[in-house]
Amino acid sequence: xxxxxxxxxxxxxxxxxxxxxxxxxxxxxxxxxxxxxxxxxxxxxxxxxxxxxxxxxxxxxxxxxxxxxxxxxxxxxxxxxxxxxxxxxxxxxxxxxxxxxxxxxxxxxxxxxxxxxxxxxxxxxxxxxxxxxxxxxxxxxxxxxxxxxxxxxxxxxxxxxxxxxxxxxxxxxxxxxxxxxxxxxxxxxxxxxxxxxxxxxxxx
Length: 204
Hints:
The chain is built from 4 helices and 12 strands, in the order H-H-E-H-E-E-E-E-E-E-E-E-H-E-E-E. The chain has helices at 12-24, 28-44, 67-75, 149-154, and strands at residues 53-55, 79-84, 94-97, 104-106, 112-114, 120-121, 128-132, 135-136, 142-143, 167-171, 192-194, 199-201. Helix 2 runs parallel beside helix 3 (67-75). The radius of gyration is 16 Å and the shape is globular.
């Protein structure tokens, strides 16, 4: 168990490296059971329902395994979506609904994507978005991989007159908790983070 949050590094790049090391250092015995624990906590928090559109991600590079959660959602007949990384000059993600058929490809980061031409929606049309992250703090701010895809996709939430807001749920290990994530005015905070130990709700 990691009770002490990672201290704040002097800049974002240094903090990102520090948090990457913390994530890479998570013990294998923790990783082995973490995905199932996250799934049970998500159910306890009431995040999955048959009438919801829920976005997941395909875990890569040491990210928390959300496949137990995704499989549970599919069993519950939740409408499940995965992100599609856009072309180089674009940043806003599309989300493609999982269905039957061999519609898988690898994107330029070697992460599996499903059905680029198959029932795509923007984040606006989702009810819950599970996000990977490098680190998080107790204000609900997250540090991502640095590509800016989720930031661009969720930027509309900073406008006051947004009529629909998905619940943003970060998925992380306790080791990725940080004292403070440096944030910019355009950063959109999370509603919740789920780790292998518990879930955190943040006030909005």
